[in-house]
Design brief:
382 residues; Rossmann fold; D-amino Acid Aminotransferase, Chain A, domain 1; 4-stranded parallel β-sheet; 19 strands; ATP binding; PurK_C; decarboxylase
Length: 382
C-alpha cells in the first residue's frame, strides 16, 4: 500500500459509478476503505457512497490517470473503458485489477472465445467471419448466432439467424458466428481469485431471461440441477479464471444443453448481475469478495445461507424520465424480500433500475414470492 494510505487501509479507485460500482463502494466503506469513483455523470449512483467522484468519461486518459494515481488499487464496474492508458499505468507499477490486459481480451468476444478454447474450456463451435454474407454463414451452417466482437451488452450485439430468410437480422459489424445451442438452462457461477491465487466459487445459479430484451430477468440460487452438473460447472468456472489469470470476482455465464453438456458462453471480469443474491443469501457478498480479492486479502466464505431468488427491476415500456416506483409498500410486505434501488436519475425501457432478492428455506416458494414482487413493482416515470 502507498505511504499515504489510511493507516494500512487501501484507497480503492473504481472506474464506473453505476449500480455495481455503488455496491462495491458500499462494501469498501463498511471495511473502512477510502473510495474514489470515476464516472461521466455527476451524482452517479456510486457517488453517494464514495469519498470522491472524478467527473470524466471512461476514455479520458487524464481522468483515468488521476484516479489510478490516487488509488492503491483500482478496479472497474464496466468493460467499455479505455485499456491502452490503463496498460501503460499498470506497466509503470500501478495496481489495476483485473488486469487491463485481461480486460482487453474480454472486450473482444472472439479473442475471449479463442483463449477459452485453447485452454480446453468447453465452448460452442464458433468461426470468425470475414464478411457478413450468406456465403459466409452457409459455410458455417444454419441455424447460428452472430455476435459482434465488441460493444455488445445486455442482449445488444447478438443476432439469431436460423436460415437464409433471417439475413435481414444480420449485424453489419466486425463479428463471428457460433452454433445455436439447444439450451436446457442458462447457468452462471461467480468465482473469486485473489492476488495470492486463492480461489473460491459461489453456488451455481440458474438465469431466466426476458425474451423481449434478452436481459436477465430472474436468478435462482441454487440452480435446480443435479449434483454432478453443479460440481462440473464450478470446476469449469475455476478453470476459466485460471486460464484468464483473473483477479477479483468474475462472472462465468454458461449454457446447459439438452444433452447435459455445459458450455461457457462468456465471462464478465467484475461482479455480475447473477451474483446480486449473494448480498443477503451468502456469508460474503460478491462485492465484499471483489474488494478482498483485489486487495490481496483472504477470501471470505461463499457458503449459501439460504435459497434465494433475485429479480431485476427494469424500466417499464413507454416511460422515459425521472423514475417513479409503483407498488413499493405492497412489495415490502412480502416476507423475506429485500429491495435495492440503484439511484439512477433517469429511467428508460428495460434499463436496470434496481433489484429485489427474496430468501426462503424453500426455493420454489422463493420463486413464487419473487414473481409476486415482480408483478407488483413497476418502475415508471413522473
Amino acid at each position: 500500500m502507498k505511504e499515504d494510505g489510511m493507516k494500512g487501509f487501501p484507497r480503492i479507485g473504481i472506474i464506473g459509478g453505476g449500480q455495481l460500482g455503488k455496491m462495491m463502494a458500499q462494501e469498501a466503506k463498511k471495511m473502512g476503505f477510502f473510495v474514489s469513483v470515476l464516472d461521466p455523470t455527476l451524482g452517479c449512483p456510486a457517488s453517494s457512497v464514495s469519498d470522491i467522484q472524478i467527473v470524466g468519461n471512461f476514455y479520458d486518459e487524464e481522468k483515468l490517470e488521476e484516479l489510478i494515481k490516487q488509488s492503491d488499487v483500482a478496479t472497474y464496474d464496466i468493460e467499455h473503458i479505455a485499456t491502452e492508458p490503463l496498460k501503460r499505468l499498470q506497466d509503470k507499477g500501478y495496481s489495476i485489477l483485473p488486469s487491463p490486459y485481461l480486460l482487453e481480451v474480454i472486450q473482444d468476444k472472439l479473442a475471449q472465445k479463442e483463449i477459452l478454447k485453447k485452454a480446453g474450456i468447453p465452448v460452442a463451435r464458433f468461426m470468425k467471419i470475414e464478411q457478413v454474407t450468406i456465403e459466409e454463414f452457409k459455410k458455417f451452417g444454419f441455424p447460428l448466432v452472430q455476435k459482434a466482437r465488441k460493444g455488445g451488452y445486455d442482449g445488444r450485439g447478438v443476432a439469431v439467424i436460423r436460415s437464409e430468410e433471417d439475413m435481414a437480422k444480420a449485424l453489419h459489424t466486425d463479428s463471428y458466428v457460433e452454433e445455436l445451442v439447444d439450451i436446457e438452462k442458462e447457468l452462471a457461477v461467480m468465482v473469486a481469485r485473489n492476488t495470492k491465487g486463492e480461489i473460491r466459487c459461489y453456488p451455481v445459479v440458474e438465469m431466466i431471461f426476458d425474451e423481449r430484451a434478452n436481459i436477465c430477468d430472474m436468478v435462482i440460487a441454487p440452480a435446480r440441477i443435479e449434483k454432478d452438473l453443479e460440481e462440473r460447472a464450478m470446476e469449469i468456472a475455476k478453470e476459466v479464471v485460471k486460464a484468464l489469470d483473473g483477479v477479483g470476482v468474475l462472472g462465468v455465464e454458461m449454457f446447459l444443453d439438452k444433452k447435459g453438456k455445459i458450455l461457457v458462453n462468456e465471462v464478465a471480469p467484475r461482479p455480475h448481475n447473477s451474483g446480486h443474491y449473494t448480498i443477503e443469501a451468502c456469508a460474503t457478498s460478491q462485492f465484499e469478495q471483489h474488494i478482498r480479492a483485489i486487495c490481496g486479502l483472504p477470501l471470505g466464505s461463499t457458503k449459501l445461507l439460504s435459497p434465494a431468488v433475485m429479480v431485476n427491476l427494469l424500466g417499464e415500456e413507454g416511460y422515459d424520465g425521472i423514475p417513479l416506483v409503483e407498488g413499493f409498500e405492497e412489495a415490502l410486505s412480502i416476507e423475506g424480500l429485500y429491495f435495492h434501488f440503484y439511484g439512477k436519475k433517469i429511467t428508460r425501457p428495460y434499463r436496470k433500475m434496481g433489484h429485489v432478492t427474496v430468501i426462503d428455506d424453500d426455493v420454489e416458494k422463493a420463486i413464487e414470492k419473487a414473481q409476486k414482487a415482480k408483478n407488483i413493482l413497476k418502475v415508471k416515470a413522473r
